[in-house]
Amino acid sequence: MDRVLMVNVFLVMVGALWFVVAVGLHIQGLEWPLGHFQQLWTPLFMPAVGLLMAAALLNGGLQWLLRFRTRREQRPPGPRAALDTQNRSHAP
User: Fold this and answer.
1) What residues form the membrane-spanning segments (predicted)?
2) Which of 22, 23, 73, 79 is most buried by its number of CB atoms within 10 A?
């Protein structure tokens, strides 16, 4: 899965560079690079950008969850824990 995401990142970067160069050439009157980019946008670049965004959101969500869980485990017990211990010590 890591290799797929690495290839995907490079594909998105190449697509972004291609777009910038194609717009520059379009301004100078050369149409074909932007035309080819537009033809490849829906079948190639849009899914690649979507996968990149989904992976980034999933990674961020999992990191937040792990951080929340470790903070919760490292937190000192609250005042109810002291009451529970007292009640257990007085039990017959």
Assistant:
1) 7-25, 45-66
2) 22
> pLDDT band at residue 69, thresholds of 50, 70 and 90?
confident
Listing DSSP states for 55-86 in one string gives: HHHHHHHHHHHHHHHHHHHHSPP-HHHHHHHH
CB 22 within 8 A of CB 4: no
Separation of alpha carbons 76 and 72, rounded Å: 9
Q: What is the pLDDT of residues 32-67, one digit of tens each?
A: 999 999 999 999 999 999 999 999 999 999 999 999
- The residues spanned by each domain of the chain are 2-89
In 3D space, the residue among 27, 36, 31 whose CA is nearest the CA of residue 14 turns out to be 36
Q: With bands split at pLDDT 50, 70 and 90, how would you rate the model's confidence at 30?
A: very high
Under DSSP, is residue 35 helix (H, G, I), strand (E, B) or coil?
A: helix
Question: What gap in Å lies between CA 24 and CA 14, rounded to an integer?
Answer: 15
